[in-house]
Amino acid sequence: MAKESVKDRIISAASDLFYIDGYNQTGINKILEVAQVSKDSMYRHFRSKEAIAVAYLEKRHWLFMQALEEFVVNEKDGNDKVLAVFDCIEYYIGKFEFRGCGFQNIITDLPKGQDSIVEAVRIHINDFHLFIYNELKKNAIADNKAKELSAEIFVLLEGALILSQIQKSTAPINVGKRACRKILNM
């Protein structure tokens, strides 16, 4: 098994700390302590805590999108794949100590001027929304209708995520899925 690189150790430590403690509450020194690296080593890879956060979000985005693709791969059509997104989220909420969506959490914990973090969150949101849109398009839905439906479904997903965090329950995910079925006339 290959030894984890210094850069990967920093991202891994920051990922856990940002998710559990929050971005603002996590200092560079805590990241260095958990990652067991020196400040010099960190600065060889990252210029700032903001740069570490962007790397964390990029990795989280890639892992999420990969897991989502794998989760829905066996569904037969676009609508079924869209509904399976709710199942995927419910599965991961139950699998991990769910403290909310890492992207929602970091954006609400962000001081002004952290534009690269905001952009990383936007990329995730746009790609996730695009996934839903593309699946709907597979059902030969007109472009404007697919845009409208994907926006509605995406709001259901994001709302269900935040309510699941607040209520410490997957019930909002199930409610969102039922509402999605109605939107899709299924």
Q: What structural category characterises the helix and strand content?
A: mainly alpha
| Biggest sheet details | none
Could you tell me the mean pLDDT? 92
N-C termini distance: 47 Å
Estimate the helix proportion, in percent.
over 70%
- The backbone outline, from C-alpha atoms, is elongated
What is the H-and-E element order? HHHHHHHHH
Whole-angstrom Rg: 18 Å
- Strand % is under 5%
> Low-confidence runs (pLDDT<50, min 5 residues)?
none
Number of strands: 0
Number of helices: 9
What does this entry show, briefly?
With 186 residues, the chain is mostly helical. It has 9 helices and no strands.
Features:
186 residues, mainly alpha, 9 helices, 76% helix, 0% strand, elongated
Descriptive overview:
This protein is mainly alpha-helical and 186 residues long. The protein is 76% helix and 0% strand. It contains nine helices and no strands. Helix 1 packs across helix 4 (49-72) and helix 4 packs across helix 5.
In terms of topology, how is this protein built?
Layout (H helix, E strand, L loop, with lengths): L5 H16 L6 H8 L3 H7 L3 H24 L5 H18 L6 H7 L6 H23 L5 H25 L3 H13 L3
Helix pairs in contact: 1-2, 1-4, 4-5, 4-7, 5-7, 5-9, 6-7, 7-8, 8-9
